[in-house]
Amino acid sequence: MMTLSSISRFMSSSVGRKSHKFSILRFSAASDGEIVYNRLQENGGNIEKTLSSINVQLDSKCVSQVLKRCYRSQSQMGLRFFIWAGLHSSYRHSYFMYSKACELCEIKLNPSVIFDVLEAYRIEGRFVSLKAFKVVFNLCKEAKLADEALRVLRKIPDFGLRPDTTVYNVVIRLFCDKGDMNMAESLVKEMGLVDLLPDLITYMVMIKGFCKVGRLDDACGLFKVMKGHGCLPNAVVYSHFLMGFVGLRKWRELWSY
């Protein structure tokens, strides 16, 4: 028969074992996002090196968790993590994640965070690839930040890099969407000065932009240049023409194309 003191010792031992098991369970159940965030808190100023040493499953859930933990008070760290994550061969940011990053890093409300990160890279002498810049440009595109995208474009040479046609297309599209076709035109001309050729995307967004602001003569002229360069228009280009001509009720001109 167990005495009262024996029962008490048994219960204490049992509760202790359960508590120990529970603490182990809680530790082992820590999410990848929590692990990354906690390690970033101890990074000692070398965020990218810290990230490279962490062995976690990088996916949209993990990325979202880290961004949520960085929300408001640590936007710069969150943005650096997001750029780093976008460079992984085993993971690719979705459109949804770009939208989420813009929201949680407050890119639209505080676009200066982009330039704070670029400046931090420069001060630290960190190697920045063109692919990393493309993550930034996609954030600008998602947030519809044309002027900021142009500023980022101007900073690319500071890192010993040259922009490519894809980069120019993002910035040109943003100015076309904004209705600033003069800037969009100047960027297309600038491409030629750095030995880059417009591609189908360039022509497509420019023609759409010209049609949108009612500059159909310019759209038609670019259409001819496009065909002259061997870049065949697709259904999307023709649909932009259709919308532009119909919007201005220029039926007769439409049939000549």
TrEMBL record:
One Pfam match: PPR_2
InterPro entries xrefs: PPR_rpt, TPR-like_helical_dom_sf
Keyword annotations of the record: Repeat
Presence of the UniProt keyword Repeat in the record: yes
Intervals holding PPR repeats: 164-198, 199-233
Residue ranges the record marks as coiled coil: none
Cited NCBIfam families: PPR
Family stated for the protein in its record: Belongs to the PPR family. P subfamily.
Protein name, as recorded: Pentatricopeptide repeat-containing protein
Organism: Prunus yedoensis var. nudiflora
Phylogenetic classification of the source organism: Eukaryota, Viridiplantae, Streptophyta, Embryophyta, Tracheophyta
